[in-house]
Amino acid sequence: MQLKEETLLGKSIEELTNWVELQGQPNYRGKQLHQWLYRKGIRSFTDISVFPKSWRKDLEHYPIGRSVIHDLVVAPDKTRKYLLSLKDGSIIETVGIPTPKRLTVCVSSQVGCPMSCDFCATGKGTFKRNLTCGEIIDQILTVQEDFQRRVSHVVFMGMGEPLLNMEEVIKAIKIINQDIGIGQRSLTVSTVGIPKKILEFANYKLQITFAVSLHASNQILREQLIPTSKSYPLSTLLSDCKKYVEITKRRLTFEYILLEKINDSLEQAVELAKLLKGFQNHVNLIPYNPIEEVKYQRSSSQRIKTFSYQLEKYGIPASIRYSRGLETHAACGQLRASHNT
Ligand code: SAH
User: Fold this and answer.
1) 199 phi and psi, to 5 degrees?
2) What is the separation of C-alpha 145 from the centre of its chain, rounded to a whole number of angstroms?
3) Ligand 1 atom at shortest distance from the alpha carbon of 159
4) What is the rounded distance in angstroms from the CA atom of residue 273 to the CA atom of residue 314?
5) Full-prediction pTM beyond 0.85?
6) 113 is in an annotated binding site
7) Which of 59, 97, 146, 248 is the most exposed place for a label (fewest CB within 10 A)?
8) d(CA 90, ligand 1 centre) in Å
9) What tens digit of pLDDT does each residue of 32-76 get?
10) Is 120 known to sit in a ligand binding site?
């Protein structure tokens, strides 16, 4: 389910050209509208100064599809975490993460998430609906506007499971790439794994980075952390990952949250290394950001280093990914949960 209302954001250049023609305007206005929507990031039709005044007036209330910043938290490292309010009152989270060379946006793909992963704040809340392509694009434009700087990278690691909203996510990737002008290799889609969906996604043959949230070295433990994995055995998930690599000719990354004394022992590192042997894929180790609802703890830095070292020893390249802006409810869905929305 998603919002049905038509907005300009989310339309391709061809769709915008058809739309301006339907309004009785010459077709070159489609290209202009496209530029002002995606490159200049306008918030209202009246902002398009190259359009005739009377037409701008007629359409001044036409829905562009931009959200409103409901709240903003800024971390000492300048990471900015937004709560965005959508047309239907839904609230989603978006994060802007700056470094001298990059501006990365972490976007949501759904309002809430139906996957219920035990360690995830979004999973503890309620799932409402899929986001439209326009609502995904708006998040990038909002961060760009707020930072007054072009976004260089986009990661689908905010609220929601992107592969459960594949059609809109694929449309958004195309617009991010072709209309906003961010290279596919600078985009990452992260999934916890949905039966059949990884192969469906592979067949789009995108050049993006694909990340799979693994978080456990065996099926029993994975089911404890990710209840939905009961219907998607680890062996099937990994064989789908292999096929993804064959089809797209792109490597994928495994994400592994480190939870103290749950999945971070030496034996589990060895088990994980054996599981991933021959994959030639990278493992991103993510120190867990504690959430209120559950008692898991972040692994100590010593245990994290040892786990990483053990993987490397067994030939699995690993890196530790500290999330930015920890002080400001950095983990997925935490800010929204703290607002009780
Ligand atoms: N549903 C997708 C994308 C959203 S979550 C997925 O599961 O991959 C993006 C990443 O943040 C995932 O790897 C997820 O496991 C991780 N994450 C969720 N809660 C977290 C927490 N409390 N601490 C650290 N990482 C977390």
Assistant:
1) -70, -40
2) 19
3) 4
4) 6
5) yes
6) yes
7) 146
8) 21
9) 999 999 999 999 999 999 999 999 999 999 999 999 999 999 999
10) yes
Q: Sheet harboring 153-156: ordered strands across?
A: 68-74, 80-85, 91-98, 103-106, 153-156, 187-191, 209-213, 252-258, 282-287, 318-320
Give the residue with greater pLDDT, 122 vs 340.
122
Q: What is the architecture, at CATH level 2, of domain 13-58?
A: Orthogonal Bundle (1.10)
Half-sphere exposure of 222 (CA within 13 A, CB side): 22
- Residue 133 annotated as lining a ligand binding site: no
Whether 273 shows a pLDDT value over 70: the answer reads yes
Q: Which CATH class is domain 68-338?
A: alpha beta
CA dist 87 and 67 (Å) reads: 7
Does 191 sit in the ligand 1 pocket, CB within 6 Å? yes
Report pLDDT for 143.
98
| Residues with catalytic function | 93, 332
**How many other CB atoms are there within 10 angstroms of residue 261's CB atom?**
11
- Report the amino acid identity of residue 47: D
Rounded-to-integer distance, Cα 32 and Cα 207, Å: 28
Cα gap 96→123, rounded to integer Å: 21
Answer yes or no: is the C-beta of 194 below 6 A from any ligand 1 atom: no
Q: Report domain extents, the chain.
A: 13-58, 68-338
The strand ranges marked E within the chain are 68-74, 80-85, 91-98, 103-106, 110-111, 129-130, 153-156, 187-191, 209-213, 252-258, 282-287, 318-320
- Tell me, what's the pLDDT at 341? 40
3-state secondary structure of 39: helix
